[in-house]
């Protein structure tokens, strides 16, 4: 397999800062698209992976799965895009395409395991996959998205993960006009959840721990903001919501949020992976036919649907554009919830 070197920014170990490094990309095969990366969003999952929070990180690790760029080369059988077009790549770069999930456009739930944009298995080179904190990426056209031409590119990048991760549950649970939706946590995912739920016509409530974010929440489109540490405010929304999207990245008590679900409502966890503490009390779930669920990003067709919707409704992320050299500072700020509301790397800074 022919390959070439590109510049990247990654981490050699769990407790090391990210730094410049060179990585290899495969030469385009017949179905591949080579993309020069222009912007890459910074997702909290990048930080979890760089620091091995979930275990299983293969080093060196190059994060980044909110990629927008320009097509610079295409394989002989590519039909989706042509050289010069803008393109997007999210969290998936491959899957088996034969299993039941893949056949239903649910590549993220591939029964044979999807290939993540980073820390997956590069089947041609036999290495780990490397993400978007790099000059270029080579991806099978099936996993490349078309980017709406009317939106600001830097602000489109976060749609590729934060956007689709919140869009998918909104669609799966049929959110529309008159739905009552709540979002837990105002960060990258949270701010996109508010915008997309509003775009679908829902009434939207933000739960935040941070009183300093009340005005931002309202400006982003929330109809109300509830400070989650205030019991009186939490009681005021008991039994209210059809759907709650919980984006908090670390272990936390879900029980107070279950109490705010309406009969037959669902709390969908997208942020935290792992066991729960304190234990989840089933009494309110049984007495109100309430569900606690999880959801992982979204399939490729659904991601395109979300991008097209954002194009129509002029929905983009609120971004703070940074240079790649500032990524370690950005991670520290992310840990302090000091993000307004997504860092996006201008990949020109890597040159
Ligand atoms: P983020 O920008 O850092 O936002 C997380 C928000 O959660 C914070 O702004 C904060 O909002 C709230 N929060 C509550 N407790 C916190 C704590 N102890 N530390 C930090 N924040 C806390 O993160 P993100 O990029 O939106 O990602 C959120 C989570 O979703 C991450 O764990 C990420 O790995 C995961 N994720 C999952 C999927 C999926 O497919 N399921 C996809 C992408 C990302 P307030 O200040 O308003 O409380
Ligand atoms: Zn992500
Ligand atoms: Zn599959």
Short structural description:
This protein is of the alpha/beta class. It is built from 11 helices and 17 strands. The protein folds into 2 domains: 3-161 and 298-350, Medium-chain alcohol dehydrogenases, catalytic domain (Quinone Oxidoreductase, Chain A, domain 1), CATH 3.90.180; 162-294, Rossmann fold (3-Layer(aba) Sandwich).
Can you walk through the features of this model?
The chain is an alpha/beta fold. It folds into two domains: 3-161 and 298-350, Medium-chain alcohol dehydrogenases, catalytic domain (Quinone Oxidoreductase, Chain A, domain 1), CATH 3.90.180.10; 162-294, 3-Layer(aba) Sandwich (Rossmann fold). Helices cover 23% and strands 27% of the residues. It is built from eleven helices and 17 strands. Strands 3, 4, 5, 8, 9, 16 and 17 form a seven-stranded mixed β-sheet that branches. It has a six-stranded parallel β-sheet with strand order 12-11-10-13-14-15. Strand 1 (3-10) and strand 2 (19-26) form a beta hairpin. Helix 4 packs across helix 5 (188-199) and helix 4 (162-172) crosses helix 10 (300-313). The longest helix has 14 residues, at 300-313. The chain is globular, with a radius of gyration of 20 Å. One zinc ion binds next to helix 2. One zinc ion binds at residues 95-96, 98-99, 101-102, 110-112.
CATH superfamily placement of the largest domain? Medium-chain alcohol dehydrogenases, catalytic domain
Elements, N to C (H/E): EEEHEEEHEEEHHEHEHEHEHEHEHEHE
CATH topology of the largest domain: Quinone Oxidoreductase, Chain A, domain 1
Main β-sheet description: 7 strands, mixed
Task: Tell me the span between the first and last alpha carbons.
Answer: 26 Å
Number of helices: 11
Overall CATH architecture of the largest domain: Alpha-Beta Complex
- Based on CA inertia axes, which overall geometry fits? globular
Mean of residue pLDDT values: 98
* Structure classification: alpha/beta
- Count of strand segments: 17
Low-confidence stretches: none
